[in-house]
Specification:
Glutaredoxin; 210 residues; alpha+beta
Length: 210
């Protein structure tokens, strides 16, 4: 059975859509998923990038495309009242619920839907308190151990070559974005068919840089 590492941040609507669609995209295959919440802002800072919602034109396009894609994929999704927001409390809550090495799908699903269903404020203190009570984490989300675990996971993502979310890793190959789910399925079914694509990327010489 193949293991997929799923790197994501709850702030990303594309990560939410990929999370919701993953069971459908891989239906009939044998695999297990390790859900690994990470801080997207740290990835962006490391690579010297702005987030999509930090650029006016790209921000508008992102929200339009996400709304359209959610309809196409039949995934109920509503934009939160404010975006972008600070996801640290949600990421730490997920890791505070960790059992057997990672938060389970129920925990991640509950937090994603806290953000991306209903159109409410993801950072609202009352809602966060209710969410925490619902999940009943065995560790305190604001504990030093939980904060360190989130930092460690984000560092591990960077070491694995993750540059954005959602990213899914299997067999040492990284698949980025919602639209990479068909490629991920191909990797699980017949990985040799992707050998040429991987070899092509490695064969291109670095051109001009800025």
């Amino acid at each position: 059975m193949k293991r997929i590492d799923f790197w994501f941040d709850f702030i990303s609507p594309y990560a939410c859509l990929a999370f919701e669609r993953l069971p459908v995209a891989l239906q009939g295959l044998s695999y297990e998923v390790r859900y690994r919440p990470i801080l997207l802002a740290a990835l962006l800072k490391h690579h010297g990038q702005l987030g999509p919602a930090e650029m006016a034109g790209k921000r508008d396009w992102t929200y339009r495309q996400v709304a359209w894609q959610a309809g196409q994929l039949d995934v109920p999704l509503q934009l939160p009242a404010r975006h972008p927001f600070n996801p640290l409390a949600l990421l730490r809550l997920a890791w505070a619920c960790e059992r057997q090495g990672a938060p389970n799908r129920y925990v991640c699903e509950t937090i994603f839907r806290h953000v991306w269903r209903g159109g409410a404020d993801a950072e609202d203190a009352g809602r966060l308190a209710a969410l925490t009570a619902q999940l009943s984490p065995p560790q305190a989300p604001d504990s030093a151990d939980v904060k360190q675990r989130l930092r460690d996971e984000t560092d591990a993502a960077l070491a694995a070559g993750v540059f954005g979310v959602p990213s899914l890793e299997v067999d040492g190959r990284l698949f980025w974005g919602l639209d990479a789910l068909p490629m991920l399925r191909a990797q699980l079914e017949q990985p040799a068919k992707l050998d040429a694509a991987w070899a092509t990327a490695a064969s291109v010489a670095q051109g001009r840089t800025r």
